[in-house]
UniProtKB/TrEMBL annotation:
InterPro entries per UniProt: P-loop_NTPase, T6A_TsaE
GO molecular function: ATP binding; metal ion binding
Assigned keywords, A-Z: ATP-binding, Cytoplasm, Magnesium, Metal-binding, Nucleotide-binding, tRNA processing
Gene: tsaE
GO biological process, alphabetically ordered: tRNA threonylcarbamoyladenosine modification
Cross-referenced Pfam families: TsaE (PF02367)
Name recorded for this polypeptide: tRNA threonylcarbamoyladenosine biosynthesis protein TsaE
One GO CC term on file: cytoplasm
Length: 140
């Protein structure tokens, strides 16, 4: 699926992505610095009922709650240089919790990606618009 998005359509884009994902709860967000990974994650959290998401760049993970009180986990692995740092977080606990996980910079942890996820590649088109290419990955 390919979506075009801008600040004006961001929340609508988030709803479309959640609908596209169906029961899949792990989202891997790829894109260059400044492409809007955190901004998109904030919109996804807003669509789920949490409106105060922020970047976990220095803490690696933030936990929010949906409107129904369920956890949302937001990871930023930009500063990860060794997989041992992520393994120490017990990442599998989060990934297999059945709750939403939004992971920025997943390429830094590629050897330990889960087997099921939604991959979102963000491409900068202009200062205010992005193209999002989405793929759902599930084992056969």
């Amino acid at each position: 699926m390919i979506l075009k998005s801008s600040q004006e359509t961001l929340l609508d884009t988030a709803y479309k992505l959640l609908d596209y994902a169906g029961n899949q709860k792990v989202f891997l967000l790829e894109g260059p610095i400044g492409s809007g990974k955190t901004t998109l994650t904030k919109a996804l959290c807003t669509a789920l009922g949490y409106t105060n998401a922020q970047s976990p760049t220095f803490t690696l993970v933030h936990e929010y709650k949906t409107r129904h009180g369920h956890p949302i986990y937001h990871f930023d692995f930009y500063r990860i240089h060794a997989l041992q740092d992520v393994i120490a977080l017990d990442l599998e606990y989060y990934l297999f919790s059945g709750y939403y996980c939004f992971i920025e910079w997943p390429s830094n942890i590629k050897p330990i990606w889960p087997s099921c996820y939604v991959l979102i590649n963000i491409e900068i088109k202009t200062n205010t618009s992005r193209n999002l290419t989405c793929h759902t990955i599930a084992p056969l």
